[in-house]
Amino acid sequence: MFPRYLMNFDLNSTSADITDFVVIGSGIAGMYCALHLSAYGRVLVISKDKFPDGSSLYAQGGIAAAVGKEDSPAIHLRDTLAAGAGVCNLKAVKILTEQGPAHIKKLMEIGVPFDQKANSICLTREGAHSIPRILHAGGDATGKIICQVLAEKLASTANIYVLENTMAVDLLSQEGQCTGVLVLSKEGRPYPIYSRAVVLASGGIGQLYEKTTNPPGATGDGIAMAARMGAGTIHMEFVQFHPTMLDHENLQGFLISEAVRGEGAVLRNDKGESFMPKYHALADLAPRDIVTRAIYSEMARGSSKGNSPKVYLDATGFARDFFKRRFPTIYNTCNQLGINPSSDMIPVTPGAHYLMGGIETDTWGRTSIKGLFACGEVACNGASGANRLASNSLLECLVFGYRTAKAASCQYEARTPKIKPLTLKYTGQNTARVTKAKLQEYDRQLKKSMQTNVGVIRDARGLNSQMKFLKRLFPLLLSELGSREGLELQNKIIVSYLITQGALTRKTSCGAHYRSDAQSSSQSSDKQGITPSKMH
Ligand code: FAD
Ligand code: SIN
């Protein structure tokens, strides 16, 4: 279906690096996994941009774990399953919720300063949590602070080496086992790295969409690489759209955390009405998929008259200075744009945020390919079902990052490395030159069409039209584009295809996958059966 490699490369032509373990990605999953792998051998962490990077750096709301007195893993499990709309893997959710608190303790031991009040950890609420259980740091800078602490820990740990500004291009294999990775150095030089196990921790796919909260590197490279190698993927149709991305012409993709609603803010339509109680019993703290569709519905109401009416987040009822203290990053960013969250409503719109699906793994991060492991957002062990519970992702990075390290370390002991140079067999035939301007135009079209046809609301007509569009782009997969931009576009085409195919195959609505042309089978049912018209 897809070409095996994106680069034509003779492995004999250059020297190779050899290590015990390669971890692709320096987000929280990659760093936490590398930390635990370092007890078993030399670990090379590869980061496409500056180390550390990824969505992890931008996480605002926090990390969910049953650490409160009134809480328990059983309640956390119940909430996760309810948000997941009947598609969660019970075993994975049990592991996540039961083992989560121990990893929070470990994070604190290595120096993560979770916010505290009167000597006890502050816990907040987010959508679909029945109890406050979200730990946070620096108010709304949780991801940045955890990344800083982990990065410092990695820097002081023997056996861990970091290659930043280096892009993994293709996974290498021999006799059906993963044996390493071909990378593009920051100077644009391709070379192979051989290892006994490869861990993909390469994050999400938000950049497939026009509107996203994800950073520029979230282009689905890991999923595309694994799919080219023949690894299984699953639940690709489940793309979560965060309801409240800032809607401002001068700043794209900035998130307004769900924790703002957790602290009491409400969504209002252009008439000033608080509309969420109409849609779900949990009102503003309903599961994310429900809130996103409710916002679409409100926006669709006036769209026939021209511009869609705006939706706002209203935190003006907060006590004086509370917003500034509790959400300093959001407060300062809004202020720079002339919005004072203490007195002004914040315009918001949904944006592609998180992929529940991904490379299929078991609960030890093992993929269908021997020697290839995956953890974090790139992986799918079913813990998020059809709709991830807020702030469970960072917990997943820890719990399954750790378990993946344990499994990969066994691989190290069990395998005799048989490393011999190979010549990659590239099936490319298309030699037509693709200019940078053309690449950018294809990218723009891809994002726009994914937003329209495979976005929040889907139907067979849009999905079939997207399939046709993607197939027209397939010849590009056979061109040796070589640059980071070109390789990312090729990966995006492959991942878009997998998402569209999943969405076409699942004919009923479920969690974040909403088909306007089908009956809902979702457990997280809306009060009003929301059927907004498709919006761009
Ligand atoms: P990432 O942190 O995305 O890291 C991916 C890494 O892979 C990066 O280092 C990247 O450079 C590297 N990479 C990718 N491709 C390649 C390649 N080809 N070669 C080399 N390296 C590559 N979740 C929560 O639980 N709580 C929150 O409060 C929260 N807030 C969020 C706020 C925002 C704005 C966003 C975008 C997400 C938020 N999430 C939150 C989701 C969560 O942050 C992510 O799901 C999680 O951080 C993913 O971690 P990761 O380690 O799997 O991947
Ligand atoms: C947020 O802060 O709203 C994001 C939380 C998440 O993605 O889980």
Layout of strands and helices, then pairs:
Blueprint: E1 17-18, E2 21-24, H1 28-37, E3 43-46, E4 63-64, H2 73-83, H3 90-109, E5 116-117, E6 120-121, E7 134-135, H4 142-155, E8 160-163, E9 167-174, E10 177-184, E11 190-194, E12 197-200, H5 221-229, E13 233-234, E14 239-246, H6 258-262, E15 266-268, H7 288-301, E16 311-314, H8 322-326, H9 328-336, E17 346-355, E18 358-360, E19 372-374, E20 379-380, H10 392-414, H11 436-453, E21 457-458, H12 460-473, H13 484-505, E22 514-515
Parallel strand pairs: 1-11, 2-3, 2-12, 3-8, 12-19, 18-20, 21-22
Antiparallel strand pairs: 4-7, 5-6, 9-10, 10-11, 13-18, 14-17, 15-16, 16-17
Helix pairs in contact: 1-4, 1-10, 2-3, 3-10, 5-13, 11-12, 11-13, 12-13
Describe the structure.
- This protein is an alpha/beta fold and 536 residues long.
- It has three domains: 9-238 and 356-408, 3-Layer(bba) Sandwich (FAD/NAD(P)-binding domain), CATH 3.50.50; 245-350, Succinate dehydrogenase/fumarate reductase flavoprotein, catalytic domain (Flavocytochrome C3, Chain A, domain 1), CATH 3.90.700.10; 432-505, Fumarate reductase/succinate dehydrogenase flavoprotein-like, C-terminal domain (Methane Monooxygenase Hydroxylase, Chain G, domain 1), CATH 1.20.58.
- The protein is built from 13 helices and 22 strands.
- The protein has helices at 28-37, 73-83, 90-109, 142-155, 221-229, 258-262, 288-301, 322-326, 328-336, 392-414, 436-453, 460-473, 484-505; strands spanning 17-18, 21-24, 43-46, 63-64, 116-117, 120-121, 134-135, 160-163, 167-174, 177-184, 190-194, 197-200, 233-234, 239-246, 266-268, 311-314, 346-355, 358-360, 372-374, 379-380, 457-458, 514-515.
- β5 (116-117) and β6 form a beta hairpin.
- The structure holds flavin-adenine dinucleotide and succinic acid.
- Residues 60-61, 257-259, 390-391, 393 line the site of succinic acid (SIN).
- Succinic acid binds at residues 60-61, 257-259, 390-391, 393.
